[in-house]
Amino acid sequence: MKHEDTMRPGTLEAAKQFGLNEAEWANILRLLNRTPNMTELGIFSVMWSEHCSYKSSRVHLRTLPTSAPWVIQGPGENAGVIDIGDGDAIVFKMESHNHPSFIEPFQGAATGVGGIMRDVFTMGARPIAMLNALRFGEPEHPKTRHLLAGVVSGIGSYGNCMGVPTVGGEVNFHKAYNGNILVNAMCVGLARADNIWLSAAKGAGNPVVYVGSKTGRDGIHGATMASAEFSEDAEEKRPTVQVGDPFTEKLLLEACLELMATDAIIGIQDMGAAGLTSASCEMAAKGGAGIELWMDKVPQREAGMTAYEMMLSESQERMLMVLKPGREAEAERIFRKWELDFAVIGITTDTKRIVLRHHGEDVCDLPVNVLADEAPVYERPWVEPPRPAPLSDVPAPPSILGVLKQLVASPDLASRRWIWEQYDYSVMADTIQKPGGDAAVVRVHGTGKAVALTTDVTPRYCQADPYLGGMQAIAEAYRNLSAVGAKPLAVTDNLNFGNPQKPEIMGQFALAVRGLGEACRALDFPIVSGNVSLYNETLLPNGQYQNILPTPAIGGVGLLRDWRHMATIAFKAEGEAVILIGETKGHLGQSLYLREILQREDGTPPLVDLGSEKRNGIFVRTLIEAGQVTTAHDCADGGLLVAIAEMAMAGGIGAELAAPVNGDPHAYWFGEDQARYVICVPQSTAHDILAQADAAAVPAARIGTTGGEMIILDETNISIRALKDPHEAWLPDLMRR
Amino acid sequence: MKAAVIVFPASNCDRDVATALTQITGRSPAMVWHANASVPGDADLIVLPGGFSYGDYLRAGAMAAHSPIMQDVIARAQKGTPILGICNGFQILCEAGLLPGALIKNASLSFVCRPVNLTVEAANTMFTNRYAVGQTISIPVAHGMGNYVADEATLDALEDEGLVALRYTLGDNPNGAARNIAGIMNRERTILGLMPHPERACDNALGSEDGKALFMSLLGALS
Questions:
Q1: Domain limits for position B90
Q2: CATH code for the domain in which residue B129 is found
Q3: Chain A residue numbers touching B145 (CB-CB < 8 A)
Q4: B94 — phi, psi (to 5°)?
Q5: Is B159 a catalytic residue?
Q6: pTM
Q7: Number of domains comprising chain B
Q8: Min distance A280 CA to chain B CA atoms (Å)
Q9: Do B20 and A429 make contact, defined as CB atoms within 8 angstroms?
Q10: A632-653 pLDDT, tens per residue?
């Protein structure tokens, strides 16, 4: 669009092209009492997009628990903040970059990492860990390997250059993601609790400052793209994907933290989705102020950009700040030292309007509250999604250990080493539990404390029963943190769903959120930040739509008061008692046994008993904190025998099993009952630990003894090597093909 | 011992090596910004830390080798001030011509982060005198461009003069480096460049303390 075109009155047709509907267009006309020009319409379209306004999800998100005595900042800012004592705070959030990563996996994933890091250091925190929750299509799908290789390489290139360790995450494969992968990145930062920076632009007459990279024509309407479903022409949208520059981001990080050591800043916000538009509107709305921007002063990568393009660009590595008057020179000195652009591009006003001046002309003049607060909120109709077929008879396998060997080399259980060895997980020299365990553990630098971090959700459970699946995602995060000895403190959620305009999909969303909320309340595990990604559906050549599995990815954070008391999954010594915590009923519905061995996806997912989750979790954590247990593993995907095999493979020590199997052995060993852990203790304390469990009303049973190089079950056995070789080989073999 | 750690734009192991130096030598190093004209006069060890100086754009270390501070680093090198270059620091030393050869993309074409086993090849140096020749140590690597290359004559000269300080243990070469070379010295043995990160191996909680002896060697030699 030429400058003259951006000044023409908008039309319904243009509004539709920008992703707004007829009612929204009518509403804009009514609220403004005039017709917006095309620049103004562009600004409306991104501020009112699903991505920025949460218009479909807001009514449900309101029901989530977000507070606790240790929560410093809940949802609504760039990231959530929790208190971890001694004046330290953890700042964290997870965010999706799904559509860009499908279109251009390397840059899509890289800029996803860059974006979430900015959200965290905008608040004054130094990022100390990254995690990522990834979902790809079937391994055999022609695009999967290309997408996986690109995403992993993109995540690595950005995080490694930043010098922030990538310490954990999860990967699933399922055909529902063939045309719409999920790339959810989580960043965790460390700040001082009394030095948290917020985004409100307060006061009038304060300088509005732009820092970081120059603005180019990349990523225009990225937020709009992220708010619509994919069709077959997804690749044609490649020009809407931004290009990342981690070098500049590293400089921006250091410069921002240096300035934050002074008191020159009033408000600061990164320019992420919808760039300068959402940064300026949100800052003004939060501070109850107006903002006037002088577009000629915006640092530009190329000549001749219109205000429309500058406002909608999603060029990366940029920040907007409001400074105290008179502090510009001091701030500029810092940003120049780091070789970054620094420009005063406007001023705060008391008009509560966003005014853009370009070439001496007002090209936009809109009330802030209409953009930020009058965005539509929909109570979209929803229905309960259909129930899965009831679980029919599940035949026993010829060999339990044969199934185990198959399961540990199946797509969702095989080793992820090929991925995490491409991430620098040891930089910053505080990663004391690296990828591959239940949760990553990163020390709070220079202290005796550490944070435990995990990402979790089981999409196949959510598909079968979104409510139970939502609860299970929270419960599993709680378990993974407890299993390393951390007290679970808070979560961030990244809710990936299909098209909310379809009542069944909206039903998945509503019920999953209900499940999340219920579990969070029961476990004192509030949600302090998050992101919603909708329209994750693909138009197939046959005219049908493929929606992804509902995937409410959860990022959990817990605290170890003393990191010397930490558990890992590896068997540590021969001759230790293997104890199962929690009740085993042998639930096979929606299990990996069913899917991988019998190619079936029927039955209900396992029930989640939140009382047991809490009791059992506290019991295990207390044992670890007391130094009585150093080996613990959450029992989840694949069931009990898979958990034991993972412990054996990690430690290079086998086990002889003798368990009180009730019912079918395959249901006992591969059932996915929740609220369970496997722990190991010396023979001498086993009896006492079982007695402690009994006293705490926690089901516990001795199920074997560690030792040797085999897993021995009844009259059969399998060597650790025979499990580990295929377990480690699956992913490298896939990627070599 | 008074160390100076040079901080380039997008160095990212500067803090880690400063932490290790402080813990082991009891003295925190001077952190010197690359745009400065000179290294503090009392520095008796210069450290070029790991990271992605200038984003590894162009070639790893290529731009940092031309940072203002490097003129003084080169001058100090010629006067015999010991220099330790770790990972990106090793790449910078090669680009600056202070060490021979070059570090190119890993043979796998992928970044690799994992502990590797190294064999100590030279122990009669200020960097390695607390190790024994032939000793195997475990230290992590984390790099995308650690594949050491040089022409055959240079490689032969390095071997003949005993300037290969550390080698990846047979079968554990993570990057395809020629002759399994992990770390080399200049002829005067005052400069060591190595790809593995000893500063990440000074603490059993991180999996290894095998890097400690390198800093202890320097502490012993320089105080």
A1: 3-222
A2: 3.40.50.880
A3: none
A4: -70, -45
A5: no
A6: 0.96
A7: 1
A8: 29
A9: yes
A10: 999 999 999 999 999 999 999 9
